[in-house]
Amino acid sequence: PRILILGAPGAGKGTQSAKIADYFDIEHITTGDALRSNKEMDISHLGLEYDTPGEYMDQGELVPDAVVNAIVDEALSSADGFILDGYPRNLEQVEELEEMTDLDIVIALDVSEEELVHRLTGRRMDPETGDIYHVEYNPPEDPEVEDRLVQREDDTEETVRERLRVYDENTAAVLEYYDEDGRLERVDGEQPPDDVWEDVKETVEETS
Ligand code: AP5
Ligand code: ZN
Fold first, then answer.
1. What is the pLDDT of residues 14-35, one digit of tens each?
2. With a 6 A CB cut-off, is 15 part of the ligand 1 pocket?
3. Best label site of 53, 113, 143, 199, fewest CB within 10 Å?
4. pLDDT > 70: what percent of the chain?
5. What is the Å distance from ligand 2's center to 86 Cα?
6. What residues act catalytically?
7. Which residue's CA lies nearest to atom 6 of ligand 1?
8. Ligand 1: which atom is nearest the Cα of residue 163?
9. pTM of this prediction?
10. Among all ligands shown, which has an atom nearest to the Cα of 118?
11. Which family, according to the similarity comment (predicted)?
12. Which residues are annotated as a binding site?
């Protein structure tokens, strides 16, 4: 299936996408990860405010559409089934995506703002595998993994607040768009991860 997952920063898009990709044997396309691997890419030819994606990301701002659209276009062209995570984030990107592919399912993870801040400031990443952990909710069992965990540069409380503001200003409209055309399937993202996964899996199986 071709699945889109929506939700605020920290809603659990990455966590659930990893499970979806595994279970349905499809590709996980994530603009956040793609951009993090290309933080230093030279985009000065666009003549915009900053010369690299990283400068936007570390402040919690959106990376310019031209950069992100190209990444998604390329990734989608070689994917049969996919779970798309982190895109579209504004209505211009929605239009671009409509040109690139048809979606079978659009899932939105609902989580309260207070919980989002708590999840993001406690998130840790394994730099070797890309696996996502949380100091409280989902600590690694292996002490060796625990020792090498890092915090994402945009997970400081100040940047988290800015990312949530940018989400409200730009990305909330994306949810409304899919809701209005009747395609949005809402899942309660505030449950424990395995319960969210049960609901997500059921939604995909019933819709596709
Ligand atoms: P991106 O990487 O996409 O960040 P985000 O949207 O802010 O989302 P996160 O990755 O922070 O959260 P998530 O929903 O994946 O949650 P996770 O599963 O990790 O984008 C980063 C930046 O890149 C943007 O700010 C922007 O600059 C740029 N960018 C990306 N896409 C762009 C685009 N299309 N256009 C322009 N710019 C773009 O979980 C979070 C934490 O909670 C973890 O610790 C996890 O263990 C824990 N957790 C997860 N689920 C649960 C649960 N059910 N219960 C308890 N804890 C949980
Ligand atoms: Zn993510």
1. 999 999 999 999 999 999 999 9
2. yes
3. 143
4. 100
5. 7
6. 13, 89, 123, 152, 163
7. 9
8. 25
9. 0.97
10. 1
11. Belongs to the adenylate kinase family.
12. 10-15, 31, 36, 61-63, 86-89, 93, 123, 132-133, 152, 163, 191
- d(C-alpha 54, C-alpha 37), whole Å: 10
- For residue 183, being part of any structural domain is answered with yes
Q: With a cut of 0.90, is the ipTM above it? A: yes
Q: How many domains does the chain have?
A: 1
Tell me how far the alpha carbon of residue 18 lies from the centroid of ligand 2, in angstroms.
10
Q: Is residue 60 in some structural domain? A: yes
| Residue numbering of the annotated binding site for AMP | 31, 36, 61-63, 86-89, 93, 152, 163
Kindly state whether residue 178 falls inside one of the protein's structural domains: yes
> What pLDDT is attached to residue 163?
98
For 36, the domain range is: 2-111+171-207
Residue 131 inside a domain? The answer is: no
In three-state form (DSSP H/G/I as H, E/B as E, the rest C), the secondary structure along the chain is CEEEEECCCCCCHHHHHHHHHHHHCCEEEEHHHHHHCCCCCCCHHHCCCCCCHHHHHCCCCCCCHHHHHHHHHHHHHCCCCEEEECCCCCHHHHHHHHHHCCCCEEEEEECCHHHHHHHHHCEEECCCCCCEEECCCECCCCHHHHHHCECCCCCCHHHHHHHHHHHHHHHHHHHHHHHHCCCEEEEECCCCHHHHHHHHHHHHHHHC
